[in-house]
Amino acid sequence: MSVTHDYHVHSNYSDGTVLRQMVAAAADAGLAGVGIADHCNVSAREWLMREKREYGMNLDQTYPLRRDGIEGLSEQFDLRIFDAVELDYAPRDEDDIAVFLDEVDFDYAIGSVHRVDGTNVQSSTPFTGMSERERRAFVDDYYERLVDLVESELFAIAAHVDLVERTPELRGYTTADHHAMVTDAFRRSRTVPEINAGRVLRGYGEYHPAPDFRAALRERGVEFVTGSDSHEPDEIPNRKAAFEEFFAERESEPIRLFD
Ligand SMILES: [Zn+2]
Ligand SMILES: [Zn+2]
Hints:
alpha/beta; TIM Barrel; two-stranded antiparallel ribbon; 9 helices; globular; binds zinc ion
């Protein structure tokens, strides 16, 4: 059994199901370790502060409560529960992120580029009216931010590195040059990419990163941790099974952190 850890699971401390149910599902699935990595944004920008309060993404305020919950659950379930975070990354927020991570001292942080200059990568709406050229420019900008994230050395893990491929309007704009620049950045950094199963069993139907991107990374010695990006309990065993199959087919194993 090669897949013993899942480093990317959400709970009701952001947009997932109740913490206790997520941990119970991870234990039932036979995992030895689960990382509760709730969404968090610590930008001082006014509109982002307003938005996160509207969506109830308040881990920057609620992490002490979640920490107590994780401590209690660690005594009741036979697996390691990591007190982790999925932080929105933008270059201009680097100082705020560094101060926050220093102060809070999570077990580890996952960094994510969910937005580029305020535009949500995962929503089709901003891109339907764009020309091909504009879409290409947006995807270029996305990968530049991702390289900035990896180079910032703020994070143990970089999430869903080709997230733009999830969005139909942006799919297919990722190039071999993007693969190469991101691979170079990982080779120079402590940050490792995850293989993300958030859309492998629905919608997009593929892992992040996509096969040719994975090949480019692995060719140059960059390995992956597993992150199911589960938001509901059932997703944890289902995506674990998908990962088992994935790694068995390739006769390889994911890497493990913090052992
Ligand atoms: Zn994410
Ligand atoms: Zn996530």
